[in-house]
């Protein structure tokens, strides 16, 4: 039974908070759901909160980069927030730099970052 | 048992010949050996306690340095040895406190009876054992100190300091090896989370040399910090280190480097949105 | 433990985490070991057509280590050097699974024969 990660909406921003250990199918579903929701709700930004995530392997890493690229095509900025130090060190060692993905230390700073870049665009 | 009691009694008699005198001479002798690095009053207290404990132990019939009767004396000696080790005295200077008592007792031999000489020899053997005990304790204390220092060094050598709201720095001092760099890396990244800082400065003014490995570790730390949403500036790159880095062909890419910590701080503050205004009203 | 379905990858991660904690690896080393196990579990599933993983504690040089052995009887790897090159992939991935996993652990052994299968052994030592 594959779970679906809930997508919340705050104003023009979609918020995804990952709380479970993701299997590959859930990751794929999330990618599809987000693409649909960005268009359906005309979102300008996506925040993916991975504070609770203990492991980001190359599959999840690729998903984050793909979501960022897809949302950019749909005119929305993606910010990944709350990456743990151990996860960051592991990703660097793995050789994954998540090019094109914007990051912030926590949810608050991520939302502020989106606010600034959206104000710049308007 | 009777013989033992008897033996102790003789030793006791040896010590009680002008008890005050003996203790005073002892203290003078030890004091001379330590060249005044411990105050006379402190030495007075220490040695008088030792003397009393020795007399008490002999009175209780103890003649064995490791026997139960001497446990009080050993406790006092342990404290003395530990203090000496901590204050930086040599092992000889520490053992002197015990051996000096033998010297002070030597005059007893002159014109003493055969029993006096035997008693002196027996006491001398006891004091030798106690002297060795002092050195053993001293060595153990020194080892503990060294182990504690090694631990502290790893901790102390990598402090993460908060310079401003949202700005932290690690001043690196000394040679970086792979184990230390890993500690630095983890501490810096954890500090970013704990303080919610988006700006970090890695100051390498105190690093004597940068090789490929160290540069590699620095780069990884900076990339990891970026993944977490923070920016790093490297400061304090000395001319010869800049030359080495270029000569080794290490790409620093788009990593911001500044000559001094002050420059790096100014940049970090600007990025953190802090505006500096000098008292004259002009802006920097 | 067999690796035959998608959510077995998650189960391998859980197994690797338990082992890493029993081995008293530091938090960063735990994360590295679990991530490497996750990469290899997916490789076993996707390229090896399923297989098994065995885990355990090992002792060497007075240190404790976490060990994981991934075994499949899939097609095998024709060119090991190429498979261990960053960015090279035969299956549409990022090409970081094998090469990345090797960087995350202390010991890495790859044993493969075309047509017979692949065995990958990982060890991460406690400090």
Write a compact overview of the structure shown.
Chain A has 122 residues and is α/β, with parallel strands linked by helices. Chain A is 48% helix and 18% strand. In chain B, α7 (178-195) runs parallel beside α8 (212-228).
Structural domains of chain A: how many: 1
Quaternary assembly? heterotrimer
Q: Largest interface, with Cβ-Cβ < 8 Å?
A: A-C, 24 and 27 residues
Described by strand count, sense and barrel closure, the largest sheet of chain A is: 5 strands, mixed
CATH topology of chain A: Transcription Regulator spoIIAA
Task: Provide mean pLDDT of chain B, rounded.
Answer: 81
CATH architecture of chain A: 2-Layer Sandwich
Number of strands of chain B: 5
The CATH class name of the largest domain in chain B reads: Mainly Alpha
* Ends distance of chain A: 43 Å
Q: Give the distance, in angstroms, between the N- and C-terminal Cα atoms of chain B.
A: 90 Å
Radius of gyration of chain B: 32 Å
| Global outline of chain A | globular
Low-confidence stretches of chain A: none
| Beta content of chain B | 5-15%
Number of domain modules of chain B: 2
Low-confidence stretches of chain B: none
The overall pLDDT average of chain A reads 87
Per DSSP E runs of 2 or more residues, the count of β-strands of chain A stands at 5
So what's the overall shape of chain B? rod-shaped
């Amino acid at each position: 039974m594959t779970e679906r990660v809930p997508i919340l909406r705050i104003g023009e921003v979609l918020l995804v908070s990952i709380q479970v250990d993701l299997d590959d199918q859930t990751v794929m579903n999330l990618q599809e759901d987000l693409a649909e929701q960005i268009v359906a709700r005309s979102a300008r930004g996506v925040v993916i909160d991975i504070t609770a995530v203990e492991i980001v392997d190359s599959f999840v890493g690729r998903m984050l980069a793909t979501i960022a690229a897809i949302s950019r095509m749909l005119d929305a900025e993606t910010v990944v927030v709350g990456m743990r130090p151990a996860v960051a060190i592991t990703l660097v060692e793995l050789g994954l730099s998540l090019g094109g993905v914007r990051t912030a230390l926590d949810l608050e700073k991520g939302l502020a970052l989106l606010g600034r870049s959206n104000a710049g665009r308007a | 048992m009777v013989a033992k009691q008897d033996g102790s009694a003789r030793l006791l008699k040896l010590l009680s010949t002008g008890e005050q005198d003996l203790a005073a001479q002892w203290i003078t002798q030890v004091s001379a050996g330590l060249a005044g690095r411990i105050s006379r009053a402190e030495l007075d207290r220490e040695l008088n306690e030792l003397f009393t404990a020795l007399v008490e132990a002999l009175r209780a019939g103890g003649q064995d340095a490791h026997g139960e009767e001497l446990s009080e004396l050993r406790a006092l000696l342990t404290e003395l040895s530990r203090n000496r080790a901590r204050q930086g005295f040599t092992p000889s200077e520490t053992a002197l406190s015990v051996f000096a008592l033998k010297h002070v007792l030597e005059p007893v031999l002159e014109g003493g009876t055969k029993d006096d000489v035997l008693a002196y020899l027996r006491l001398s053997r006891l004091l030798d054992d106690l002297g060795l005990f002092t050195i053993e304790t001293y060595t153990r204390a020194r080892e503990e100190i060294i182990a504690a220092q090694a631990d502290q060094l790893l901790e102390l050598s990598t402090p993460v300091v908060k310079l401003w709201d949202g700005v932290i720095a690690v001043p690196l001092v000394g040679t970086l090896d792979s184990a230390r760099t890993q500690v630095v890396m983890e501490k810096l990244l954890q500090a970013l989370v704990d303080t919610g800082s988006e700006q970090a400065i890695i100051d390498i003014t105190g690093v004597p040399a940068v090789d490929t490995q160290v540069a590699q570790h620095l780069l990884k730390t900076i990339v990891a910090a970026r993944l977490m949403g923070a920016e790093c500036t490297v400061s304090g790159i000395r001319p010869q280190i800049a030359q080495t880095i270029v000569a080794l062909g290490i790409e620093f890419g788009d990593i911001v480097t500044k000559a001094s910590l002050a420059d790096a701080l100014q940049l970090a503050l600007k990025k953190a949105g802090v505006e500096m205004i000098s008292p004259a009203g002009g802006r920097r | 433990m067999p690796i035959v379905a998608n959510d077995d990858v998650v189960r391998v991660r859980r197994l690797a985490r338990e082992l890493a904690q029993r081995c008293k690896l530091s938090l960063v080393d735990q994360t590295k070991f679990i991530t490497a196990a996750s990469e290899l579990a997916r490789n076993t599933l996707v390229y090896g057509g399923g297989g098994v993983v065995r885990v355990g504690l090992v002792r060497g040089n007075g240190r404790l280590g976490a060990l994981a052995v991934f075994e499949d009887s899939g097609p095998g790897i024709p060119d090991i050097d190429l498979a261990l090159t960053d960015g090279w992939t035969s299956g549409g991935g990022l090409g970081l699974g094998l090469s990345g996993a090797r960087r995350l652990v202390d010991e890495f052994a790859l044993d493969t024969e075309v047509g017979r299968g692949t065995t990958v052994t990982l060890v991460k030592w406690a400090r």
